[in-house]
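Query structure, 408 tokens:
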């Protein structure tokens, strides 16, 4: 028998404004279609394994060899051997970590994003997040009781942050600035001069920089990723990285965060991280055990990213296919697995990104993510994952063009 206090209630209010459309209602509709026997081309999630990408065999062998030694909890921050390897990797990239005691392993970068916002924010405090963003950042701020304030990235300037807009949105309640570098969903790679300018804003206003650098080893066209902490060595920087994408082991949930720069006066954040990681006990220990070997040899992905390599050629295939569609423009991504095209609503006046994505799924069985799912205000973009083979991407571009014609 139900008492007054046991009546079922809806979802808690703190969750009601959080959006994660990458795995939202459209994916649920696709799942239902698959249960009915319909094949779906999933271009919504950067998960390499379903598209025939496999982890380096030596890492799998290392993982299996060390299983017997990783049955118990590790230190809450992570295995010392893993943290030492992460520290060496960060120094190789020009960063200056505080040391292994301020390096934390996580069940993917996602867990560490959630923990870091909990450690940072009091209720009502603000974090500046790029638009478009990876939506977990916005959700993590909201879950921590904070307010996400989105600064604009300018598509006409290779999707670089608009510095004037960024500075304008700094207030007395701002605690940090998030940089997703390379960016997801745009694939933008930021030059050192721009990082230095953003660092100057953080320095002047006493802010922490959060550098989501999970795609730092997935850079193409001969370009080089410059770590945020290396460009602004005197600013407090939280650098987040992992092996999920670069070593094709998303399911292993293997991420880390490293504190670099000057943390004087911000020791409370470190205390918070120490508390929260202790409560969590530790991250996946077998995955931690392969970090030293993975970071000692990073060449596995290079052939895939070079001209003729699978990821490079797939990027070319989808960019060329989309560019052939009248009214669609593409800013060629420099890194990562994603492209974020724009639709000219003057040519397609009835276009709406959600309606388009649903129509594409229902009529063509192709699943994408609407651009507004990345906190881009105008409903004129969408994101495509270019992990499928070229033939599938060429087909997807053709069908996207056909569906767009229904919006004229």
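Result returned for the query:
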């Amino acid at each position: 028998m139900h008492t007054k206090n046991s009546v079922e209630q809806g979802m808690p209010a703190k969750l009601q404004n959080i959006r994660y459309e990458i795995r939202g209602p459209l994916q649920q509709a696709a799942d239902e279609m698959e249960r009915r026997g319909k094949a779906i081309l999933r271009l919504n999630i950067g998960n390499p394994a379903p598209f025939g990408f496999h982890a380096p065999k030596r890492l799998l062998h290392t993982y299996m060899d060390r299983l017997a030694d990783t049955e118990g909890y590790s230190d809450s921050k992570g295995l010392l051997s893993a943290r030492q390897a992460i520290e060496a990797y960060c120094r190789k990239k020009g960063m200056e970590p505080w040391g292994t005691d301020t390096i934390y392993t996580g069940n993917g970068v996602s867990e560490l994003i959630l923990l870091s916002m909990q450690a940072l924010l009091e209720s009502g405090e603000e974090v500046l997040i790029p638009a478009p963003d990876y939506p977990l950042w916005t959700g993590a701020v909201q879950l921590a009781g904070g307010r996400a304030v989105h600064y604009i990235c300018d598509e006409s300037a290779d999707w670089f942050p608009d510095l004037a807009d960024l500075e304008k949105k700094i207030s007395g309640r701002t605690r940090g600035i998030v940089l997703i570098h390379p960016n997801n969903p745009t694939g933008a790679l930021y030059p050192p001069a721009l990082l230095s300018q953003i660092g100057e804003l953080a320095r002047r206003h006493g802010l922490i920089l959060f550098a989501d650098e999970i795609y730092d080893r997935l850079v193409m066209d001969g370009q080089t990723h410059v770590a945020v902490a290396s460009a602004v060595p005197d600013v407090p920087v939280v650098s987040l990285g992992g092996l999920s994408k670069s070593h094709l082991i998303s399911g292993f949930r293997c991420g880390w965060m490293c504190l670099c720069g000057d943390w004087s006066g911000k020791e409370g954040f470190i205390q918070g991280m120490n508390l929260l990681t202790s409560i969590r006990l530790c991250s996946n220990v077998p995955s931690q055990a392969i970090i030293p070997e993975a970071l000692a040899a990073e060449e596995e992905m290079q052939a895939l990213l070079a001209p003729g390599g699978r990821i490079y050629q797939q990027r070319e295939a989808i960019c060329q296919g989309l560019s052939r569609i009248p009214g669609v423009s593409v800013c060629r991504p420099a890194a990562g697995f994603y492209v974020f095209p724009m639709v000219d609503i003057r040519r397609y006046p009835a276009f709406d990104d959600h309606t388009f994505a649903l129509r594409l799924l229902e009529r063509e069985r192709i699943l994408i993510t609407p651009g507004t799912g990345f906190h881009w205000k105008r409903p004129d973009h969408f994101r495509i994952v270019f992990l499928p083979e070229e033939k599938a991407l060429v087909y997807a571009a053709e069908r996207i063009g056909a569906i767009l014609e229904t919006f004229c």
